[in-house]
Every structure is written in structure tokens, then in C-alpha cells.
Design brief:
Helix content is about 10%, strand content about 45%. The strands form 3 sheets. The chain has a 5-stranded antiparallel β-sheet, with no helix packed on it. A 4-stranded antiparallel β-sheet has the order 2-3-13-6, with no helix packed on it. It starts with a helix and ends with a strand. The protein has one domain. With about 210 residues, it is mainly beta.
Length: about 210
């Protein structure tokens, strides 16, 4: 209940902050979220919470914590986790959109000497070839090291196909490798502020 109230309060505050008219003439007049589902070895059990900002230029979603570990007592599967969120946006015909990261991806790594941890983010539309993922790599020794992984400037997904609906897929993966130190251990935990992530929506009119 407390988490639900916190989410509602956050979205209300975001709506107030973005209630002014959009700065982009390309934004469609009406946008809504039909559905949002998640799946993967690292997803939380609850359905993802997804919302649009009032100006329809931000997509805000909560997908909980994503964590991978490799150590003496960890099974091999614990060293690689992923969660994919699939979002179906409803908007008028004649528009197309792409997405890019609006906030850094934040987390913490604990790595012994020569243990490597990686974060990978991939976004693509169903029916399209997956785009080149964004990858962030960390090498130990690192002790409770906080990070904010920022995507390359100007990087964004391809635009959604014109003339037909298409689902947006957002896949985040974390990995820990012990190849450089088989007796060591490591952990990576991706946990955006307040459990919230945001994507920037880039709209355009179809030709």
C-alpha cells in the first residue's frame, strides 16, 4: 500500500511539473498506454507500473531491482539476470516515435580483483531487428561502488513503423563474470532512484 501511494504521489507531482504545453509540435494530441507486461529471470513478481508524463514526452516505469551475483555459493544462473518490459502505446494514426534514456541508469557494484560486471540495455520494436545495445562494464576491485551509467549523447532507438501498431520492448540485463578470478566473487545491483526509470519520447509525423 505504501509503495502504491508513493508511486501515485510521484506521478501526480510529475504531472504538475509537466502540465504546461508541449514544446514539440510533433507530439500527438492523444496518447495512452494500452498495456505493459514484463518477463525474464530478473523481473519482480509484480506487473510493471508505467505512466506517461502530462506533456506526453516522457514514459515513466518502475521495474524494481535487477541483481546478479557470482560467488562460491551462487549457482551459475545467478550470474546473469534480465528483465524485459513490453509496452503498447495507443496514439493517433500518422505518428511515429523513438525513445532514449531520460535519466542515468543507477546501481551499486561489489567486485573482487578482476571480477567483471556488465549492464546492457536494449530497446526495439516488435517485428524490427534489435538495436545495438548500450553496454556498461565494471572491473574489480570495487567496494560498494555507486554508479550512474549515462547513455551516449543523441543515442536513441529506431522509430516505430508507420501505419501499424508496434510494441516497444525494453530489455535490461546484468552479468557478473569470474573468468579473471575463479575464486573471487562479485555482485551488481541496478536500482534506479525510487525504483523509477524514465524514457524520453521523440515524436514525428509519418510521411
Amino acid at each position: 500500500m505504501q509503495k502504491a501511494m508513493a508511486w501515485s504521489t510521484y506521478i501526480l507531482g510529475l504531472s504538475i511539473l509537466t502540465a504546461t504545453a508541449s514544446s514539440s509540435a510533433q507530439v500527438p494530441p492523444d496518447v495512452s498506454i494500452r498495456s505493459a507486461v514484463s518477463g525474464g529471470s530478473g523481473c519482480t513478481s509484480r506487473a510493471p507500473l508505467v505512466a506517461l508524463s502530462a506533456d506526453r514526452e516522457r514514459l515513466i516505469f518502475a521495474n524494481g531491482v535487477l541483481e546478479a551475483s557470482a560467488g562460491p555459493d551462487d549457482p551459475p544462473a545467478a550470474g546473469r539476470k534480465f528483465c524485459q518490459i513490453t509496452i503498447d502505446l495507443d496514439f493517433p494514426p500518422g505518428y511515429s516515435y523513438a525513445v532514449s534514456g531520460a535519466w542515468p541508469l543507477r546501481g551499486i557494484v561489489d567486485l573482487d580483483d578482476d571480477i567483471v560486471a556488465e549492464v546492457e540495455v536494449e530497446r526495439y520494436f516488435t517485428g524490427e531487428l534489435p538495436s545495438q545495445p548500450f553496454e556498461f562494464t565494471f572491473r574489480g576491485p570495487l567496494a560498494s561502488h555507486s554508479f550512474a551509467a549515462i547513455e551516449p549523447q543523441g543515442a536513441m532507438s529506431s522509430f516505430s513503423p508507420c501505419g501499424r501498431a508496434s510494441l516497444l520492448n525494453i530489455k535490461t540485463s546484468v552479468r557478473v563474470s569470474k573468468l579473471g578470478n575463479p575464486t573471487g566473487s562479485g555482485n551488481i545491483r541496478v536500482s534506479p532512484p525510487w525504483g523509477i526509470q524514465a524514457l524520453r519520447l521523440h515524436w514525428k509525423r509519418c510521411d
